[in-house]
Amino acid sequence: MTALLGIIVLGVGLGASLFLPVPQTLKTNFDAGQSLYALGEYEGAIIEYSKVVKFSSRAVREDSIFIDYGEEFELPILSAAWYQLGNAYKRSGKHDNAVEAFRQITDDAIGVPEDIRSLVQFQMA
């Protein structure tokens, strides 16, 4: 009886983990966007980065997930995704969308170093 209860609890836990968002989901989407961007598949990258910036869950605090951006910076995943989304839009010729994405970093982002904000402002020009 105890073993059966244990199996049921384990099954419920595993089932819930398939449906509950986790920080790794955001990182997976971001990494997929990075891979597509590197291949020049900007439309696919836009889709993946958009999944990150549109993500909303009470179970995950996006401001606690960071991405190593080069060797010098660590950015909150939302800021990194907005930046890369802007770059992907820019590469695909969607300048207005790029500016809007970049503006999310200059106007709203928390935890973004001033060097990155300056770089983003340069990108918007």
Q: How would you characterize this protein structure?
A:
- Strands 1-2 form a two-stranded antiparallel sheet.
- Helices cover 69% and strands 6% of the residues.
- It has one domain (21-124): Alpha Horseshoe (Serine Threonine Protein Phosphatase 5, Tetratricopeptide repeat), CATH 1.25.40.
- The longest helix is centred in the N-terminal third of the chain and has 18 residues, at 2-19.
- It contains 6 helices and 2 strands.
- Mean pLDDT is 81; it is low at 9-18.
- It has helices at residues 2-19, 23-38, 42-53, 77-91, 95-108, 114-124, and strands at 66-69, 73-76.
- With 125 residues, the chain is mainly alpha-helical.
- Helix 2 runs antiparallel to helix 3 and helix 3 (42-53) runs antiparallel to helix 4.
